[in-house]
Amino acid sequence: MSSFKTLDDLGDVTGKVALVRVDLNLPMKDGSATDVTRVEAVKPTILELADKGAKVLLLAHFGRPKGQRHSTMSTSFVQGDVEKVLDKEIMFIPEVMGPVVEQSIGILSDGDIGLLDNVRFWPGEEANDPEFAKGIAAHGNFYVNDAFSAAHRAHASTEGLAHHLPAYAGRAMEAELKALDAALGNPEQPVAAVVGGAKVSTKLDVLENLVGKVQHLIIGGGMANTFLAARGVDVGKSLCEHDLTDTANRIIDQADHAGCTVHLPYDVVVAKEFAANPSSMRVCNVHEVAEDEMILDVGPQAVEALGDVLKTCRTLVWNGPMGAFETEPFDAATVALAKTAAALTEGGSLTSVAGGGDTVAALAHAGAKDDFTFVSTAGGAFLEWMEGKALPGVAALTA
Q: What would the pLDDT profile of 252-266 be if each residue is shown by its tens digit?
């Protein structure tokens, strides 16, 4: 793993200005955030810098204003939520560079926190314009990136600033990078990957990257139906991308060559209609799915066998649910396998790393989220990392 500097590498920061990129793109309802997980994640970094006497300026985006000021997308909307989580007053600064920022820094005392306005109000942010990055950098003494969830974007505040100032990973970024390295960078083998979700098309690059890196590839969700169809199974009216059966077979062949076992369900939960607890629900062998039935979850025998696979593994990477987990009882396989993984993690035999929006929700629903070694809240960045792509925001820190 490439080395990157962390807050441990900072000397005395008293009176210095820290430009800290954070993710404050919070889901809002009636003017306040419905979920402050992202603020909780960056709280340790912000408070550590403030406690050490730095003047902390927070850089963040909020929504997609496309390079123009938008009255409903100012970061001032999340100021109250951030203050609540930090238990500190913060100063809102309606610019990201120039005399207003300069004056504000003059007003801030050591250890104070300022929140700059939405970096995406300026076209230079998403264009990663070096002049724009330089303009922001002029106000800071050093740069800290604590927004892994935005690390797959090469923007001025996520990548550009690292070329103009000494750059460090914040505590959340540091934890994320260490966990990801333990999961796929330099993992203890054997490694299992659970990949679920509706469509193979959205996870093609993930699957192709993983078959060369893991010993067990467990496929669930609607994607499994496409793989089953590729193997000649009649999946009835299940969600299935029939045009991708050749691709699925190619991935299975690649796995064979790489010594990776692909696990597909052999018993499944089917129903004639997709609804909660339908009367037509039954468990059957994959070869017994009727024309008017759809596969909605992995069956109990397959889940038990998959649990046994995890018991032989040392590392697990998880992205996506095993079935239509939002609707009971089609959450059973996801919940059972998540609980097994959580128990093995707690017992010390498994390092488990999970990520992606649906995955976080599924693990929380299973009551297993807190027992995983690491759960990444990043969606796109986590997927791109699973695809084996270099993330610009991370690469800039290791340069």
A: 999 999 999 999 999
